[in-house]
């Protein structure tokens, strides 16, 4: 086996070992969340001094665990096939691995194509979804706090308020029972404190972002980082194509010596 084959072999081993560990970690976390949510959230809260997970609904945590289990298991299995195929020079495992990666690549291309083709419908659907969730925004701790925490995080990070403006909060019956006009997350803060304590009651353009919708803020953020997103996506596609070529190349390399041996033995017998 030549130098190129050796390089391809060890690259595939390293590449799949990394994803093998990552998939195993995701699978472990997913099973842990599914089996014992409280212990995991308590550890995370202790490490990052955050209580977001502890406030998240049980159904959301369960859905997260399902996603982690499925994604982790698929990554674990596929990378295991690739690692074993390269390490033990198994033509069969490498072929299966290459075909699975090719299917993943095709699915990714289909998803991207559908996203561009249905861009208008996707934007309307996203806006409608955001408005449907803001109906459950609450001013106090209750069963809808997951929505509240998520929206507070979005508005604080993107410096926006509501989907299109602060008027969207009028759709929330939990919010309209208060005397506040906008949530504190819509207000301008300094060192974690409100710049103007009257902001939730009397929002203005100088003490809040009450007229800036989060939907436009999200679109602006995506447009500003479009080059990075496209670059990362193109890099991932390039790596996947390179790995598929290497896997199929090694499968051909490991296949040829077997036929060569058969040819030599048949000639000797002749």
TrEMBL record:
The chain crosses the membrane at residues 12-35, 63-83, 95-118, 226-250. CDD domains: uroplakin_I_like_LEL. The gene is LOC107073344. PANTHER family: TETRASPANIN. Its main location: membrane. Keywords: Membrane, Transmembrane, Transmembrane helix. It comes from Polistes dominula. This is Tetraspanin. Belongs to the tetraspanin (TM4SF) family. The lineage of its organism: Eukaryota, Metazoa, Ecdysozoa, Arthropoda, Hexapoda. It is found in: Membrane. Pfam families: Tetraspanin. It is a multi-pass membrane protein.
């Amino acid at each position: 086996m030549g130098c190129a084959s050796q390089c391809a072999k060890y690259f595939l081993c390293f590449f799949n070992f990394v994803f093998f560990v990552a998939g195993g970690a995701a699978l472990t976390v997913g099973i842990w969340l599914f089996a014992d949510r409280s212990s995991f959230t308590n550890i995370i809260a202790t490490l990052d001094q955050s209580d977001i997970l502890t406030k998240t609904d049980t159904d959301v945590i369960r859905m997260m665990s399902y996603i982690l289990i499925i994604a982790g298991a698929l990554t674990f299995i596929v990378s295991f096939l690739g690692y074993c195929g390269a390490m033990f020079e198994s033509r069969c495992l490498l072929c299966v691995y290459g075909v699975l990666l090719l299917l993943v690549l095709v699915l990714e291309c289909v998803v991207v194509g559908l996203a561009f083709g249905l861009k208008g419908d996707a934007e309307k659907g996203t806006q409608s979804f955001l408005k449907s969730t803001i109906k459950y925004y609450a001013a106090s701790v209750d069963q809808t706090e997951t929505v509240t925490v998520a929206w507070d995080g979005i508005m604080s990070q993107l410096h926006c308020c509501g989907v299109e403006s602060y008027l969207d909060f009028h759709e929330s019956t939990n919010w309209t029972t208060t005397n506040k006009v906008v949530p504190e997350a819509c207000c301008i803060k300094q060192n974690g404190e409100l710049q103007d304590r009257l902001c939730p009651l009397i929002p203005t353009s100088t003490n809040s972002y009450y007229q800036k919708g989060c939907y436009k803020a999200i679109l602006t953020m995506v447009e500003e980082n479009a080059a990075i997103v496209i670059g990362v996506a193109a890099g991932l596609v390039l790596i996947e194509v390179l790995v598929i070529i290497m896997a199929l190349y090694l499968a051909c390399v490991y296949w040829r010596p077997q036929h060569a041996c058969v040819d030599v033995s048949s000639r000797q017998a002749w």
